[in-house]
Amino acid sequence: MEIVKYILMVVEVFFIIYLIGYSTFLFFSVVVGSTTLYKQKRLEKLKNKLRTNYDIPISIIVPAHNEEITVIDTVNSLLELEYEKYEIIVVDDGSKDSTSSKLIEYFEMHKVNRPIEKVIKCKREEYVYETNSLKVPLTVVRKANGGKSDALNMGINLSQYPYFISIDADSVLQYDSLKNITSPFREKEDIVACGGLIRISNDIEFEKGRVKKYKLPKNILSAMQVLEYDRSFFASKILLDVFNGNLIISGAFGLFKKDLVVAVGGYDANTVGEDMELVMKLHVFCKSHNIPYCIKYVPDAVCWSQSPEKLGDLIKQRRRWHMGLLQSMSKYRELFLNMKFGLISFISYLYFLIYELLSPFIELTGLVVTIISFIVGLINIKFMIIFFLLYATFGALLSLTIFLARIYVQDSKLSFLDFMKAVFLCFIEIAGLRQIMSIARMTVFIGYKKRKLQWEDLTRKQQKLKI
What we know:
By secondary structure, the protein is α/β, with parallel strands linked by helices. The protein contains 15 helices and 13 strands. The chain has helices spanning 2-46, 71-79, 99-106, 148-158, 177-181, 183-187, 220-241, 258-263, 274-288, 311-331, 343-357, 359-375, 381-409, 416-442, 448-451, and strands at 58-64, 86-93, 110-112, 125-131, 138-143, 163-167, 171-173, 191-200, 205-207, 210-213, 253-257, 294-305, 464-466. It has a ten-stranded mixed beta sheet, sandwiched between helices. It has a three-stranded mixed beta sheet with strand order 10-9-13, with no helix packed on it. Strand 1, helix 2 (71-79) and strand 2 (86-93) form a beta-alpha-beta unit. Helix 7 (220-241) packs across helix 13 and helix 10 crosses helix 14. The longest helix is centred in the first third of the chain and has 45 residues, at 2-46. It is globular, with a radius of gyration of 23 Å.
């Protein structure tokens, strides 16, 4: 019995240290993130940012599978970008709906016999349609189903420009996103990739690539994801960017130097976490070959993407994300405590290992042990209640701080009702949704081995977009 009590006490102490460590990381993320956003706002007011009329030629690749509801809006939004030199390539990866035919009909495209040099291996194409009657060239290629990674590789093979962007087919780029995301490439020669800011588009009204009316989503689940994105993704990426330590560029909006991506073999078609896998591969490849490089996060390059509004869809999304995280971290485990990779190894990889990959198991185990310890009389219930209340309050305040900082910097107007809604949901998200997602992520292995390369079948709705 004494041994059991000792083990429970050790686990309880570890759990408390784990929570304090996570809160500390979040605190530094929010402080650095808020400070960076404030400096960015001042630079914009002083007009001290680098300005140039030179546009880097970009190929925008839109992998799509069963996206007939959103894909036309996505392409229309891309045609509204304030940028000169780019092309749009939509890759229909074996859709069962009318994704390709709707695009072909809407934009009055014509079939071409265009040879495709497959510098990266991918599944065969069925047909290619083009049109040059728009602002920029638009290409639609229909191919055999091979998953998102395979579709992106096809897009790279079709692309004609030295840089490419990957964007989801349910997303809308802000009018100045290309100008902003390419700015690091114009400032430094060793930039190999840039990631933009992903914001949730549910219930947002757009006009010519600009936000006409901003508000928190009506759907409670989506509104909580707005706060979660700001705290867990937005702030942490700004912090990791300080030492070139970001291990992931969201598949919803990322810019890459094509020749280097081709050199590393493109996207891995055997993983569901193609975005993280590619970025980690670039880190390892450049470090191993002594290639000067930098991977940047650009928070003023904004992509608006739909978030799941149904709990079942959100669980499917997070399970997929966690599987991708597991695959990428396992594949590049050489990054673990390796002096060769510096802070990427000792901060970035450890953070993703402890507070992302293992967090569902640690947090739920800690809660179970806390309950058992209370039953057997090992903990002071008053102390634990106060501790967890302080932890939840601290986390909620950090979420609210970075949320309001982003609202301020991006000149968004927030109603009083939305402000109060955000205050309330900060607590619900950190002390409710997080635990549900932890349970979902723990079930990642169930049924995913045989379906690991299938696309997410999530519910979509048409964007509030005015051209």
